[in-house]
Design a protein that fits this description.
The complex is a heterotrimer. Chain A has two domains: about 230 residues, P-loop containing nucleotide triphosphate hydrolases (Rossmann fold, 3-Layer(aba) Sandwich); about 120 residues, Nucleic acid-binding proteins (OB fold (Dihydrolipoamide Acetyltransferase, E2P), Beta Barrel). Chain A contains nine helices and 19 strands. In chain A, strands 11, 12, 13, 14, 15, 16, 17, 18 and 19 form a nine-stranded antiparallel β-sheet that branches. Chain A has a six-stranded mixed β-sheet with strand order 6-7-8-3-9-10, with helices on both faces. A four-stranded antiparallel β-sheet of chain A has the order 2-1-4-5, covered by helices on one side. By secondary structure, chain B is mostly helical. Chain B has one domain: MetI-like fold (Orthogonal Bundle). In chain B, strands 1-2 form a two-stranded antiparallel ribbon. In chain B, helix 5 packs parallel to helix 10. Chain C is mostly helical. Chain C folds into two domains: about 40 residues, no CATH class; about 210 residues, MetI-like (MetI-like fold, Orthogonal Bundle). Chain C starts with 18 loop residues before the first helix and ends in a 7-residue tail after the last helix. The chains are: A alpha+beta, B mainly alpha, C mainly alpha. Chains in contact: A-C, B-C. Chains A and C meet through strand 6 of A and helix 8 and helix 9 of C. Chain A: Keywords: ATP-binding, Cell membrane, Membrane, Nucleotide-binding, Translocase, Transport. Chain A: This is Glycerol-3-phosphate ABC transporter ATP-binding protein. Chain A: One of its GO terms (molecular function) is ATP hydrolysis activity.
């Protein structure tokens, strides 16, 4: 039940600027994921929203009220920590109840809320245990439960799944979303895992080097990355990049060319490239590269196979094209050998175009 | 909550330091009833020419670093010896630590007795084994008094090194030991090339703690020899005490203390450097 | 700061050709351990044995391994002889316990501030505390003496306790900081998110998690104080007000200088509380003292 806004938020430790120019509006009930490589400032940003770290510049608003000077305990948020931060000396029950006791809530209501949360998360029969006696997944649930019972206006989650094994992570992902649907509070979720971001977020905030790179829905980020970094960060396997010259013919057709590569561009894509630019960074998603030859796809890329990753249902074929390596996602029927020369096809309509210098997308 | 604690510490520690520095520039006998008389740097000038100062400094160095070096080496060896004791044999480890739990005054009494010229067991043993034909005057000889005091200190201090080195050895990752064994490293080579490097940091910390403890050690020495015979076992701490509380020259005693403070600071800085380089 | 004090399992049996050298090595190891045990325990055995010997036997130049004639006389005369041994014990227990308790409270606050505090001077302060641990006590003793003299606290238990606290607190703060460093940051932050003010977080979360640390610190200070001889010598000037170490030292001089039996009996009694305290905290002691140094975290 809170709208969270960041205005020009800045954070520095000594002379080191770890966050700058952070502007973001998070709607009520929204599930927003902050994603980025380590050191990108995503956790710092979350801790600033929580009030665990003061800002060095700019303002944080909860529902249009500036909370810069409101301490974490009074912001009505709940937080799930990467290492859970459970109270080791308290039972599961007490871990969840501890935050409520502070808030002058009647004993019976505390009891009811704790038991409800326990049921919702399937830890109802563990309430008497200590955190030490729980598995990683169970601790995770307790940490979530502790946040839920508080009925806060915002949930903040800091890489909550990073200590779980792959299988459990997928399961907990679904569970967190289920919980979010039930409690309908605003949620801000930090992760370094872009798959987690894509599967969970209503909107995703991509961060790098202390700056917000792009904000958008998962589809939007995937289809229209704002720059080369976002394009390469979002999607598995990652987008491949090639540097190409722009060849414009007299009759208005445009082609991207480099040794072994020739990709005709549709007019509307070509129009995005400024007239004075003659070299661009071209990005192609692996699923837009094909080993079969179809006339409809006029773009061709020739190279040699460097490596084949077998994933059972499909193969990732890494192809070396004039010393740049791009990845194609192919079906298992199309067998290729390492060192084999191959010709890939693609459609210029799906080529992503970036400025060679700044990495910004032409759109 | 933070402030009061810090202020309390500041007052308790800070006041005496400031006062000591101030006293060091005065001549002051509290028993004479007069106030301190400012004398500038006279105390420090006198100090440089005082042969007792240099003797005390030498004794401090021998007592402090001698004990630590010997105790650390023995401690490392013992730690390696008992490292793999398990089950019931672990009681050996505990027993080996006992000397550290013996009060200083008792350590002093024990060694006073064992090294007594007439009824001491050490002289009895030496004479039984024909190593010497007449009793050695351990604690009343200006040659042997300091080594005897060091021996008592080594006995009391070695368990600490055993303890710390034991913990350091237990912290050597199993994978490192195992991969060294895969490379056919064993026995002494394992100890030298694999385990000792892991003990380096522990050795630094433990030595620092014990160096500081020895710098400050008054009880064992005083209860054994009161700094004598003559000044043979007078370390700086004993000397300052003698100056301040037997001849009541508080000003001069403070000057010695300040010099000492400076020495310790230099040592601490050198040490902090070493530690930082290690990690 | 987790120092793994666990035992590593003994290496499994090695290939056959080495077996002989192995056995030789093991024998050498056992001899080494035996020698170490002898040196560690022989003086203590000697103390016990002598404390039961009559005076003549204790002073003879050819000492006996076991008392030829057992006597409790040495122990009895401690309590009804000229020396106020009973007062020493009482004074020592009172001052050491009081100093340990008060220092513990101050150390807990200070250590928490230095470990989890959020103020600019935290790092330099921590280093300063470490430095004060190195300060020569005797340098502080002169000014402290004058301070207590002015406050009319010379030759009082209170004055002695104040003296003890002044050297115990920096050490205690340093130890407690190490123990608080072992409390995960997230747990403290979780309590902040739960809305608790700092002092309540200390009381309800941090302290319950450092109970072993508190016990260790208190015991450590107790041992330090029990051992200290320079403060009572300087700050107490009548024999009845002395504590154990200084009192014993002052008593076994002059004609009593070679009362070995009595000296050893007093030594045994003085050692017992310390031995108990020591073995009670043996495990957590290393962790406290070497926090961070061993594991290199």
């Amino acid at each position: 039940m809170a709208k969270i806004s960041l205005r020009d938020v800045e954070k520095s430790y000594g002379s080191e600027l770890v966050l700058r120019d952070c502007n973001l509006d998070i709607d009520d009930h929204e599930f927003v994921v902050l994603v980025g490589p380590s050191g990108s400032g995503k956790t710092t940003l979350l801790r600033i929203i929580a009030g665990l770290e003061p800002v060095s510049g700019g303002d944080v608003y909860f529902d249009d009220v500036c909370v810069n000077n409101i301490d974490v305990g009074d912001r009505d948020i709940a937080m799930v920590f990467q290492n859970y931060g459970l109270y080791p000396h308290k039972s599961v029950y007490e871990n969840m109840a501890f935050g409520l006791r502070r808030r002058k809530i009647s004993k019976s209501e505390i009891d009811e809320r704790v038991r409800q949360a326990g049921e919702l998360l399937g830890i109802g029969d563990l309430l008497r245990r200590r955190p030490k006696q729980l598995s990683g997944g169970q601790r995770q649930r307790v940490a979530l439960g502790r946040a839920i019972v508080r009925d806060p206006s915002a949930f903040l989650l800091d890489e909550p799944l990073s200590n779980l094994d792959a299988h459990l992570r997928v399961q907990m992902r679904a569970e967190i979303l289920k919980v979010h649907k039930t409690v309908t509070a605003t949620a801000v979720y930090v992760t370094h895992d872009q798959v987690e971001a894509l599967t969970m977020g209503d909107r995703i905030v991509v961060m790098r080097d202390g700056m917000i790179q792009q904000v958008g829905t998962p589809d939007h980020l995937y289809d229209y990355p704002a720059n080369r970094f976002v394009a390469g960060f979002i999607g598995t396997p990652a987008m491949g990049f090639l540097r190409c010259s722009v060849r414009r013919s007299a009759d208005g057709d445009t082609e991207l060319v480099s040794p072994g590569v020739q990709i005709p561009l549709p007019r509307e894509r070509a129009a995005a490239i400024p007239a004075d630019v003659d070299t661009v960074e071209v990005g192609v998603r692996p699923e837009r590269l094909y080993l079969d030859q179809t006339a409809a796809r006029s773009g061709t890329l020739s190279g040699t196979v460097e490596m084949v990753e077998q994933l059972g249902s499909e193969y990732y074929v890494h192809v070396n094209i004039d010393d740049a390596v791009i990845t194609a996602r192919t079906s298992r029927d199309q067998r290729v050998e390492i060192e084999e020369s191959v010709k890939l096809t693609t459609d210029g309509a799906y080529a992503h175009l970036f400025d060679v210098e700044t990495g910004a997308a032409y759109a | 909550m933070i402030l009061p604690a810090l202020i309390a510490i500041g007052v308790v520690i800070g006041y005496p330091i400031v006062r000591a520095i101030q006293l060091s520039t005065t001549e002051f006998n509290p028993l004479a009833g007069a106030d301190p008389t400012p004398v500038g740097t006279a105390n420090f000038e006198q100090l440089v020419d005082d042969p007792i100062f240099w003797e005390a400094l030498r004794n401090t160095a021998i007592y402090t670093f001698g004990s630590v070096a010997i105790a650390a080496i023995i401690g490392a060896m013992v730690a390696l010896l008992v490292e793999n004791l398990s089950g019931r044999a672990r009681v050996v480890k505990t027993l080996l630590l006992t000397p550290w739990a013996v009060p200083f005054v008792v350590v002093a009494f024990l060694f006073r007795y064992m090294f007594d010229a007439q009824s001491g067991v050490i002289n009895a043993l030496l004479m039984d084994l024909n190593i010497t034909d007449q009793p050695v005057d351990w604690l009343v000889s200006s040659t042997w008094a300091l080594p005897t005091v060091v021996a008592a200190n080594v006995w009391a201090q070695t368990p600490f090194f055993v303890l710390v080195f034991g913990a350091a050895l237990a912290a050597v990752p199993n994978e490192v030991i195992e991969s060294a064994r895969v490379d056919s490293t064993r026995g002494l080579a394992m100890a030298r090339h694999i385990k000792l490097p892991y003990m380096r940091n522990a050795a630094l910390i433990a030595s620092l703690l014990m160096v500081v403890a020895n710098f400050n050690d008054f009880g064992k020495i005083w209860a054994m020899t009161e700094g004598g015979p003559g000044y043979a076992t007078t370390t700086l701490v004993v000397w300052v005490y003698r100056l301040a509380f037997t001849s009541f020259e508080l000003g001069y005693a403070s000057a010695v203390g300040v010099i000492w403070l400076v020495l310790l600071l230099l040592f601490a800085i050198a040490y902090a450097r070493m530690l930082r380089r290690g990690s | 700061m987790a120092v793994a004090v666990s035992e590593r399992s003994a290496p499994a049996a090695r290939p056959a050709p080495r077996a002989r050298r192995q056995r030789g090595g093991r024998a050498a190891r056992n001899v080494g351990i035996a020698v170490a045990l002898f040196f560690a325990l022989a003086p203590i055995y000697w103390m016990l044995s002598t404390s039961f010997k009559p005076e003549l036997e204790a002073t003879q130049s050819d000492p006996s391994l076991l008392p030829n004639e057992y006597t409790m006389g040495n122990y009895q005369s401690l309590f009804n002889g000229a020396m106020p041994f009973g007062s020493f014990v009482v004074n020592s227990v009172i001052t050491a316990a009081a100093a340990a308790l008060i220092s513990l409270v101050l150390s807990a606050f200070g250590g928490y501030a230095l470990s989890k505090g959020n103020f600019r001077l935290r790092e330099p302060m921590s280093f300063l505390i470490l430095l004060t641990r190195m300060l020569p006590l005797v340098v502080l003793l002169g000014p402290l003496y004058l301070l207590l003299l002015n406050a009319n606290l010379i030759n009082t238990m209170l004055g002695l306790i104040i003296g003890y606290i002044s050297f115990a607190v920096p050490f205690g703060v340093w130890l407690m900081k190490g123990f608080f460093d072992g409390v995960p940051k997230e747990v403290i932050e979780a309590a902040r998110v739960d809305g608790y003010p700092r002092w309540q977080i200390l009381l309800r979360v941090a302290l319950p998690l450092t109970i072993p640390g508190l016990l260790t610190t208190a015991t450590f200070i107790f041992i330090d104080v029990w051992n200290n001889i320079i403060y009572p010598l300087a700050l107490i000037n009548t024999i009845e007000n002395q504590v154990l170490p200084s009192g014993l030292m002052l008593s076994f001089t002059g004609q009593f200088k070679t009362n070995w039996g009595g000296m050893m009996a007093a030594s045994v009694l003085t050692s017992i509380p310390l031995l108990i305290a020591f073995f009670a905290i043996q495990r957590s002691m290393v962790r406290g003292l070497t926090a961070g140094a061993v594991a290199g975290e």
